[in-house]
Specification:
Arc Repressor Mutant, subunit A, 2 domains, three-stranded antiparallel β-sheet, two-stranded antiparallel ribbon, 5 strands, 41% helix, elongated
Length: 235
């Protein structure tokens, strides 16, 4: 196995002057999601050349051979119904530490206060969070939902059936907790559920994303729409 590109699958030509493998690599590096064969063919084809799905597979194999032979920590792999550049499993511990640092560093004091109230009082309504903090918390809730730190835990048995919020497994992982019982005691913030949900807790949002042809998860979209609404949650 060598690091040299297979010239049979990397012809030069077209406006860019780049080989098929180079064009494919550039597209996958810039893509935010996995791309299916048809999208890739459309993106890498130049001029009057003809690129088939078999050409793509050969170019992908060629690039992966180069990555492996040069000790790169990423490969082009199949994700759902498309292709994406992903890091190798051995890099997971390093990236996990980076993700933890990033999530913690981006949490503002106001967001941390909101998260703490939810953690100690879950399941809890938005109105109760705002009553404790004394300010609106729509932006903080939206941010925490997007980070998978909180989830919709059901609806309260009150007029208007307002949403109830609770924490996720990602919250426990980021803060190094085995469970909610590991939270330290905080003066003025009693521990315990504020409500009993009338509906089963919603499943946590899926972290794996499919190809760009697949729709966004409804469980992610619904909370975002709820917390940005100007309408009150309860009468």
């Amino acid at each position: 196995m060598t690091g040299e590109s297979n010239s049979d699958v990397a012809p030069l030509g077209g406006p860019s002057g780049l080989s098929l493998s180079s064009r494919l690599e550039a597209v996958l590096l810039a893509a935010e999601r996995s791309l299916g064969d048809s999208r890739l063919v459309e993106a890498v084809t130049e001029g009057d050349e003809t690129v088939t799905a078999d050409d793509l597979r050969t170019a992908i194999d060629d690039l992966n051979q180069q990555y492996e032979s040069t000790g790169r920590v990423f490969r082009i792999i199949r994700v759902a119904s498309g292709w994406r550049i992903m890091t190798v499993p051995e890099a997971a511990p390093v990236l996990g530490r980076l993700l933890t640092q990033r999530q913690q560093s981006r949490l503002t004091p106001a967001t941390m206060e909101t998260l703490a109230i939810i953690a100690y009082r879950q399941p809890v309504m938005r109105a109760e969070i705002e009553a404790i903090r004394g300010v609106a918390c729509g932006d903080m809730l939206r941010s925490l939902l997007e980070r998978r730190m909180i989830r919709i835990a059901g609806r309260a048995e009150e007029l208007g059936r307002p949403m109830l919020y609770g924490t996720t497994k990602d919250f426990l992982r980021v803060f190094g907790l085995s469970g909610i019982d590991d939270l330290p005691e905080v003066e003025g913030l009693p521990r315990g559920p504020a409500h009993r949900p009338s509906a089963p807790p919603a499943a946590e949002p899926v972290t794996e994303r499919g190809s760009d042809d697949q729709a966004e998860s409804a469980e992610v979209l619904e909370p975002t729409e709820v917390v940005t609404s100007d309408a009150p949650e309860s009468a």
